[in-house]
Amino acid sequence: LDLAQRDQFEGRLYVRATELNLSRLQQWLAMLGPVTWRGQIGACRGVDIGDCTWALPEIDHGKLAGEFWMHISDAAITQITAAFRLDDLVATRLHNGRVPVARSRLNLLEGKLRWRAKPENEQGWSLIFDELLLDDGQQRWPTQQVWIEQAGTTFRASADYLRLTSLRTWLAVSPVPEAIQRLLADASPSGLVRHLYLMIEKGRVTHGYMRLEDMRFRGSGFLPSIGLGGHDGGLSADIYKYPTGWIVHLDEQDLTLDFHDEFRAPIHLTRLKGVIYWLEGEDIRFFSPKLELHTADLESQSQFDLLIPVDAPPVIRLETQFGQIASRRVPDYLP
User: pTM for the complete prediction?
Assistant: First the structure.
């Protein structure tokens, strides 16, 4: 065997792990490269390497057990299969390698995985988690499959079930842009996402679908808060993404909207049904050909078209028909 000839360097590698300490493993891997490598791998506490925003989180605790099979071809790993179990994972995101800014915990992550490199002409990889079981400390998720694929500049992902509270917590320690970190902290979303599929091309979501169930978040500006402040009623909807925008299908019978003191009290809807279209572009446009809205005091059927230009005030066209109005309660629905 001539190791200088890459096409001769092929084989299989088997690794078995029992109670592997992930914190110590991270520190050991960090010692294999230069200081900048320590930042990338997440072991940057106390190291003067500048901002660790884009580093992996520091692993405080976690034990890994499992069996791993790796296929090597042309001196590169081309395939990994594994059956694994990860217990009591705790991770921290650091600012400038010193100040902890977020911490997340995971009680259990168990399942099987298959990772495979795509042919060189496709420049990518695919990763599938089968029989994936997750316990976030508050709830054990249903067993599911998660699929992730990258090919060139195209990224695809799908999952059967996501709890937004846990996802938000782990994104807080992940190397994602600060703008997203602030958005998640301000909105504080919760609820469930089912049957998620996303396709991202050159950093932009072009196709997708998700089912939201009992989603609650803190809004701002013209966007109301939903289901917060002890009020019952979160949002459930089917959301579709297509190249030029989004389609939201609503069929809700219990929803509470809080418009930030613009009204006398939060508005509780007993019925919200219709389709809302969101067209992307330089200007933002929302419209609906039919939107039914019922409360305990009135019923309405509307169509609207809202245009939000970049350099001009918003413009809205609204047509509404009312029925079964409790006139004495009308002031409660006025700004």
Answer: 0.82
